[in-house]
Design brief:
heterodimer, A: about 500 residues, mainly alpha, about 5% strand, B: about 350 residues
């Protein structure tokens, strides 16, 4: 059956439904297939199981015999059922099929009654019920039709014949094809495993339903390969075949995904470095950006306050010049220029002034991650500019020297940190746990993240000199340079 | 990488200056007591592997199922009551519509053909109304609901499938469409749509009532609930609780968990009781909706008739097979010639 996979929206066959309804109504009207209660299938079923009043077509004037009426009724029902249950409206198929079987069973019952009228009494409604059970069981592939029929009619004596015919009919149709519900699934394009099973009885081989893209694990497999296999088949594979080797692909056994996780947990616990790396990767990118912006505003605030300080200092100097509190011998010839450093130191040391505090926080190891970057910028590119700016705004020397000393300290700190970061980055590559992941987001980001976590590592003593002199050192330096340039381009506080 | 980074944000792993991880660059792994290390790691820190790969431990699922046990009982009773009452309402309404058609036909006393025209009009109004409901509200309501139901039961649970086949729109279209189409004198049954309706009720109850929201967390429990809803649908459609239960077992036969059959049984009995209460309160005691009247002897057959029954079973099996082939051919003709398209995905 060729299946088109579009749901019907505009071409909904309303006209077809209309025509089929007219046809059905005409046939029902002419065969008088209704009683005083209802016009539907249930009236027919209840009639065929009791006295057969409707189906003998008495509306046609009694010209047709008992059996002829049943045959016409059967043909009409089959046509109407085939049409009606294929209409795109809510429509079940059990009752019409039950009715068709009932008509057939009643037909057989009447024949038996005519043949064996001398032998004994044949119960025609019992034959109708048995036939209905058999046909419905065959169409729907369910044996429970027998129980349903017995419960529906409230006649427990018929359970055994109903069960016999249901089992036989359902067995025959099950061996031959799919049920009406499976047909419906096929027609609606709903795949299921049951349909696959049904095909496999006739045609399918193992290769037809086998998944040939599954990942297998060789018995000698490195840890990184294992992790990459697990990551690449995430939510796709629960069980992994274990093969001898890549070249010799004989299957050794199979291992479950969860068992591999347990093994990896135990294995990773042995690598302390991995914990560090995890910390490095823990902070995501957004959070880091927010931090950078906060830092930029902080540094800008420092600059602003420094400028205010310069203005305030000149105002105080002018004021002191004018009111002339001190004596002539106390006043130096250079005016406020030599006098003012004491004032300024007081002002800087006072707790209300934030620049001093900001400078202090730089040395706080808890915030080294933030201040390390700031120092980094200052040292690498922007410190000459800064000096120019400061020189332009106020020609005073002491704050600048103070700042320079801080900057120098930061520089030393940064170089120490960077060497540590180099070691970390090298370990990250050596472990190659994150080889794929690091490559995906960029090595620079990882290195930058490694910067952040260095506050915890600084306490653990100096870095191995072997690592510093090793081959990967130059490569890691390149990575760090790249990272720093990216940082400056992305979030430079002074541009 | 993003998944990896998401997995890392467990709170015990965040950076804290007071307790830095024991991460020294040059410290070797501790070979003395690996067992101790493993236990410590698994209990305290290294849940991150599980976090990354989003494993739910088996204990968690068991706890969930255990905690949902009291609410599942209440849920089954609620499902049986609601679906039984609704199915009773549907059966009663379609029967009333059908009776209306009979009244319309019997206007024509002298067989002048006026009754046929009246019948045409009323039947086509019902059928077109049903088709329009399916067209404009939800095309998934068309047809017997059992293929969709079997699909939901037999495949892996997914939220999109539930929202597509069991949504409120489908429910509304199915209920009113079934009432109209059953009343339109077309030769159709009602058991598949009733099963679909019961499954819709089960899904809507789980989705919109907070008490039963826990059930949705466990896919196996959801499948059991759907099997129970099939039992409710069949038992209230035919007034046959045991048959409905068996039917639900047979429909879901590929992997039915027999230990959970009591859930289907409770729901089936509750649905049958609710449906009976509704229909009896509407005065339908003599109606074939409740019990098909059979005129039959207390001992309807003799032992030699078993041969006939066996022959009937075999021959009716073949006939049913040919009927199925014919049914599929008619479907194929309608699809190819008249562009009638049933596919829903």
């Amino acid at each position: 059956v060729n299946q088109t996979v579009k749901p019907f929206t505009k071409s909904y066959p309303l006209i077809l439904v209309f025509c089929v309804t007219l046809f059905t109504a005409s046939l029902i009207y002419f065969t008088r297939a209704y009683d005083s209660h209802s016009v539907g299938v249930i009236a027919m079923v209840s009639d065929i199981l009791s006295d057969g009043r409707i189906n003998e077509l008495d509306g046609l004037g009694g010209h047709i015999s008992h059996l002829g009426g049943l045959i016409i009724s059967l043909i009409v029902r089959v046509i109407l059922t085939l049409l009606g249950t294929n209409m795109p409206i809510p429509a079940g198929i059990f009752m019409p099929v039950f009715l068709i079987g009932g008509i057939l069973g009643r037909f057989i019952g009447i024949i038996m009654h005519l043949m064996l009228i001398s032998v004994g009494k044949i119960d025609i409604p019992a034959y109708a019920l048995v036939g209905a059970c058999a046909f419905a069981a065959g169409v729907t592939h369910t044996i429970s039709v027998a129980v349903i029929a017995v419960e529906m009619t409230g006649n427990i004596h018929m359970l055994l014949p109903c069960l016999i015919v249901s089992v036989l009919a359902a067995g025959i149709t099950k061996s031959k094809g799919c049920s009406v519900y499976d047909q419906g699934m096929l027609n609606k394009g709903l795949e299921s495993f049951q349909l696959l099973l049904m095909d496999s009885i006739t045609a399918n081989k193992a290769g037809d339903i086998m998944d040939s893209n599954s990942c297998s694990i060789p018995s000698l497999c490195s840890l990184s390969n294992l992790v990459s296999i697990l990551q690449s088949t995430l939510n796709m594979q629960e069980e992994y075949p274990l093969i001898n080797s890549i070249s010799d692909q004989r299957i050794v056994g199979s291992v479950a995904r969860t068992e591999l996780y347990i093994y990896l947990e135990a294995k990773f616990a042995e690598f302390d470095q991995l914990t560090v790396l995890r910390h490095c990767l823990a902070r995501d990118y957004k959070r880091h950006k927010v931090n950078l912006i906060r830092k930029a505003t902080k540094v800008a605030n420092i600059e602003k306050k420094r400028r205010y300080l310069g203005k305030f200092r000149t105002v105080v100097a002018g004021f002191l010049d004018k009111i002339d509190i001190f004596g002539d011998e106390d006043r130096p010839s250079a005016g406020a220029h030599t006098k003012l450093p004491t004032h300024e130191m007081d002002l800087v040391n006072s707790p209300t002034m934030t620049p001093r505090n900001e400078m202090d926080t730089v040395r706080n190891p808890l915030q080294t991650s933030e201040s390390a970057d700031t120092g980094f910028h200052d040292i690498e590119s922007s410190s000459p500019k800064l000096r120019e700016k400061e020189g332009g705004s106020s020609g005073k020397s002491s704050p600048r020297t103070r700042r320079d000393s801080v900057i120098d300290e930061l520089g030393i700190l940064t170089t120490a940190l960077s060497s540590n970061a180099v070691a970390l980055a090298k370990q990250a590559e050596a472990l190659s746990l994150s080889a794929a992941s690091v490559a995906s987001t960029g090595v620079s980001e990882m290195a930058r993240m490694a910067f952040e976590s260095l506050d915890t590592d600084r306490d653990h003593g100096p870095v191995d000199t072997d690592i510093l002199h090793s081959e990967a050192f130059s490569a890691a330096i390149d990575i760090l340079n790249d990272a720093s340039t990216r940082l400056q381009v992305n979030s430079h506080p002074f541009t | 990488m993003e998944k990896l980074a998401e997995g890392y944000h467990s709170p015990d792993l965040s950076l804290s200056p007071t307790s830095p991880p024991s991460a020294s660059v040059s410290s070797p792994p501790n070979p003395q007591n690996p067992l101790h290390k493993q236990i410590e790691v698994r209990t305290e820190q290294n849940t991150w592997v599980r976090d990354i790969f989003q494993i739910r431990s088996s204990n968690e699922a068991d706890d969930l199922q255990a905690s949902a046990a009291p609410s599942i009982l209440l849920f089954l009773f609620t499902l049986g009551g609601c679906a039984g009452l609704l199915n009773g309402l549907i059966l009663w309404a379609s029967s009333a519509l059908s009776q209306l058609q009979v009244v319309i036909i019997s206007q024509d006393v002298n067989h002048t053909g006026v009754g046929l025209i009246y019948f045409w009009i009323s039947a086509s109004i019902c059928a077109l109304g049903s088709a329009c409901l399916c067209k404009y509200i939800s095309p998934h309501a068309a047809g017997s609901g059992l293929p969709e139901f079997k699909y939901l039961i037999a495949t892996e649970m997914s939220e999109s499938d539930h929202n597509r086949f069991l949504a409120f729109r489908v429910f509304v279209a199915k209920v009113f469409g079934l009432i109209l189409s059953s009343g339109s004198s077309l030769s159709i049954g009602s058991e598949g749509p009733l099963v679909h309706t019961a499954a819709c009720i089960a899904f809507l109850l789980m989705k919109y009532i907070g008490e039963f929201g826990d059930i949705m967390q466990s896919p196996s429990l959801v499948k059991q609930v759907f099997a129970a809803s099939a039992a409710v649908g069949v038992s209230s459609a035919f007034n046959a609780p045991v048959g409905g239960l068996l039917f639900s077992i047979e429909v879901t036969s590929s992997f039915y968990l027999v230990a959970n059959y009591w859930k289907s049984f409770i729901a089936a009995v509750a649905g049958s009781v609710a449906c009976n209460i509704f229909l009896i309160s509407k005065g339908a005691t003599s109606d074939p909706l409740l019990t098909l009247q059979m005129v039959i002897n207390p001992h309807p057959f003799v032992k030699s008739e078993f041969i006939i029954f066996i022959l009937m079973g075999i021959s009716f099996g073949f006939l049913a097979h040919y009927f199925l082939k014919l049914h599929q051919k008619v479907r194929f003709c309608l699809v190819s010639c008249l562009q009638l398209n049933y596919c829903v995905r």
